[in-house]
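Sequence and fold
=================
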Amino acid sequence: CSSQNTGTFVKYDSFMSNGLCTGYCTGYAYAIVQGMNCYCSDETPASTVSVSNCNTDCSGYPYEHCGGDGVYGYILI
């Protein structure tokens, strides 16, 4: 979880989940989620925050978290 977004915007999807974003980011090191947005990146953020800050439920799969308020959830692919 980081306040930095090192990625490039890939997709807005009202059914976003960690798995869906990971699928969009095949070939990258990270899938990055925040709300209904998905970004892909090969760069690790310079700073991180507690994963407890990534507490926004994913719209497509509410048992997962898709980032948080002002922070991005990083998923290592």
